[in-house]
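Recall that a protein's primary structure is simply its ordered list of amino acids. Everything else, from secondary elements to tertiary packing, is in principle encoded there. The following example makes that idea concrete.
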Amino acid sequence: MPYYQFGKNDVFYNRVESHPKCEFWMYNGSVTYNNRPHLTGTLSLPTILSQDVTVGSDIELDDDLSVESGVTFAVDGGFTVTINASDNVSPIGHINNGDVSLYELNIDRDEGMNENLITLGVGTTNLIYPFVTKAGSLTSMKTITTSKFNNDFAYGDVISGSYPLAAGITKDRFAQGAGRKYIKALKNTLNYYTNLSHHYAYSSASLTYVEEDSPLVNWNKETEEIGLVSVPSIYYGSSIEKGTVDLRFYITGTMIGQLQDERRNGELIQVAPKDSANSGSVAGVILYNEGFVVLTGSWDLRGTGGKFYPGSTTTSDYIADASDKKTSQWIYFAQSISGSAGTTAPEASFFMAFSGTSYTPVVTMLAHAKKGALNYSNNPTFIQHGQTLTATTSSFQYKEKIDISPKNTISSSFCGYNESYKKQVFISKIGIYDKDKNLIGIAKMATPVRKLEDDDYTFKLKLDI
């Protein structure tokens, strides 16, 4: 089998840039990511109670079934009681709807079905998890400090983590004058992007130049009411692509506001409804590289007199306080997924879309099948049938046969006529070897490529790394 070395111009590296699109629908505390259905597990179902009882007797609940709101009771003929726990079922990935699970482990795995061989000191777990045993190699988890590793664990102890590791979008609202550690942490980042737009400025002191007659900045993110939507980087990759951000605000299915970064400078500009009083106004900014949406728009999206939503609803319970309902404003965008208001404003729904930026390193290798080369095959059918292949051996020599005739595989278009013999092979695989001639990869052809002696081919091999 011949080996050929790649030339200096036969191997080169590049990266492929892609822009996967992400869409989120948010309603009543639940998030739908890229229209993925909300699946529940079949192996992780809680025990469904079904028992025969007499009228007026007590019902014993199974210990594995925790009755929550939404669980219903059905009586069959007055004797059989069944608890329908469809609202009390674990998600198939053990993560919240709309979240992304790192490594996609523990899919539909039941914690009560299997025994785990490793005791963690606080019980056992039946879900897949990372672990390492403290030994002389001193290998540990990245999140375990050196002092904790030395003092809290003895040799032979198991250091473990947990799966799944999940990430999802979150919403935080900061009332006027309230503490805001997350916003303060973004102060330098916001000020860094003021060269793109003055709307990034944390306060008037953030700009080195302000017109005295008509100041560009008349706000202070240290004290004003702000909404913050956080998007983990697992959704968008390296950065959010400029010009692809789209936020929509709905009340009972009617869109009352839409923001887009149509200038591609981070400003979230209201583009709908058409002819609204605040059309063209900036309602916030987006940090493309960091994955944060900072919302400051505080005008009523319904418009004067409910022009853009003529229904009877004028306010909603966005802040989990029925006595202090608010008008629909951009600072309350996605408020239904906020931890403090997960079930409020059931008439409001929200949509957010953007495209991420992902870079994939790629190595490209050019394998050449040159003219006059690669014209023989080790396939036993390559030679004519019936020939003696046995080598001659004696105490003086070992001699292989030199007059073995290859089979003529050139087909003719005419019946009863044999074409003249030509060297012909069919290339089906290309092996890649390291410097020690260890096979490290195989490229397979979808269809074997015929090569005659006069043919010259170059095969382009690409591998994501």
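The first strand starts at residue 11 and ends at 18. The helical segments are 146-152, 181-185, 187-192, 233-236.
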